[in-house]
Structures are given as structure tokens and as C-alpha cells.
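Task: sequence in, structure out. Protein: Transposase ISNCY family protein.
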Amino acid sequence: MKGELPVLAAQFGLRFHVGPKIKAKNLKKLRKRLKALQAERGIVFVHGKGQRKTPLQRALETVEEYLTRQKKYDDYNHSFGDRNSFSKTDRDATFLRMKKDHMKNGQLKPGYNVTLAVDAEYIVAAMISQERSDSQTFIPMLEKLNALGYTKPVADAGFESEENYTWCEENGQTAFIKPANYDKAKTRKYKSDIGRRENMPYDADNDSYLCHMGHPIRAAYEKKTKSKAGYPIVTTVYTCVECAGCPHKAQCIKGKSKTLLEDRSKNLYISKTFLRQRQEMQTRIQSEEGILLRINRSIQVEGAFGVLKQDMGFRRFLMRGSVKVQTEFLLLCMAYT
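Result:
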């Protein structure tokens, strides 16, 4: 479209400026000028078989087609918002990877991410979200619970993130969140992986790690990024400069890259804040209180979902639109309670 429109306009002595993004209002202006040119020349447009269209008519029809498409694209972009997808049957819904069906097929369907907070087998807070990741729903849910006086949220591994840890620290919440690698870190394969930071000795004095061959992996620079919600994350990048000719390179350096393995060096990307928070959380959830609370969470929260889905037979929302779906879900939670 960007390449065709300036050429199309130039055929009739008109100019069409193409910016970084084509806007519907610019197409409307071009259409208006072409129609004015039609009236000025007294050209009558024809339709139907056997009729020969003038170049001006064909150009105007092309612009109108582009305008229709641009309006559709603008409408879609507005519906997308911060998401990468939406459903045409419910524009507030996001395509989510559903759990496997009875044939063990993963289903990609429009849906909502549902979050529950349960206390003493009562649902005290419930919300739906367009977010695919559970970690993005943690803070909105905690803001509801914070207003109710709760100070010890217990959550599973899907809610772990540096942003969520920091929010809890800044808002007086003593969270019990299972680290994402908690179960995996216990496996033999995980413990024997020489490429993982967890299996490398750390030299605190020099802020460096030692690889399997005893070569230092030193801090090279800091990388600053932001989460989807705007939370600033500082990642320290560690690099080993002695990887040439290493016999363990294939086991140590993983991940896809256009660079040949022989030319690559070992890099570690570590957020020191997140590392500290995860280590503190690891200790907290393994305490006597943490074990008791995690057992209680698995019974109450997963049990609530089991009752809603299996005992009450609620497998899908009947309404469309986030407001109606939220209302439907709250009514369901009231019935459960």
C-alpha cells in the first residue's frame, strides 16, 4: 500500500505523503481530491459487464478499497490493546492454550485467565483477566486482598516474578510463592547440567562464577529493561572469555543462535535482585509455616476450582465481553460460597 499510493496519486498530478504509518484520514483526503477531479473533468463512472472503466475510476476504487481495509486494521489494533490476539466472537477474550482434552490435544481457544483467592474454604476475591501469564494477575489480586487486611498471600509457581516479589516487599506482604524451578531443581538432570548458574561456584569477592573447566565468568555489563507493566529490571550479564577450544562447550552453551558454536562464548543473564528474592523465598516456603500454608493452598484453592469445574459442571462461560463474564464468574463464586 505504501509503495502504490504515491504512484497512483502522481498519475493525476497529485501528491500523497507516506509517513511511518498510513492513516485513514489521509486516504479520505486522497479520495476527496480524486472525486473533485472527477467532477472537474465531468467523468461519469460506469459499472457492469462490457463497460470500460477510466483510469480515474479504477484509482478511486483502489483508494476506497484501501480505506475500507485501513479502517478494519485500525479497528483490530484498537481491540488488540496490549495483547497479541483477540477473538472475533468475543473481542475481550484472548487466545489461550487450554489444557489437553481427552485425546491429549492442546487446544488454542479464546478465553479468560481466572484467578481465585480462598480463605477458610470461602472465595474472598475473584477476577478474570486478559493476561496469558498468571504472574501479571498477581498484583491486581493482591491489591484487592490488601484492602481486606490479608498479609500472607500463598501462590503457586506461575505467579513468581521479580515485579511481584518487589511489590510484596514494598506493601508489607509476607508472600509464600513457590519458585518456578522448585521441583525441577531437585532432578538429577538439573543438578548435573554444567551450563546452569546454580551448579557453578560463585566468587563473591570478584563477582564471578567458575565454569566446569574452572574458567571465570565475570560481570561484563548491566542490561536495563522494563516489564510489561513498566517495572524496571536490571540484569547483569556475565561473560567467559576463555571458551575457545573448550571440550565441554556443547554441554555448557545451549540455545539457538546464528553464530557457530565454535565462535560463541558462555553468557549468564542474572538479576541480582530476583536472585536474592528467590533465595529468600526458597527458605521461607521450606519453613514449618511455609510447608503448612502451601499444603493448605493446594487443598483449598485447587479444591475450589475442582468443585466449580467438576462438581458444578462449569466448563465454559456463557456470556461474551469482560464485564458480563466477570459478572457471571462472581455469581458462580457466590453460589460456591
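The mean pLDDT is 91.
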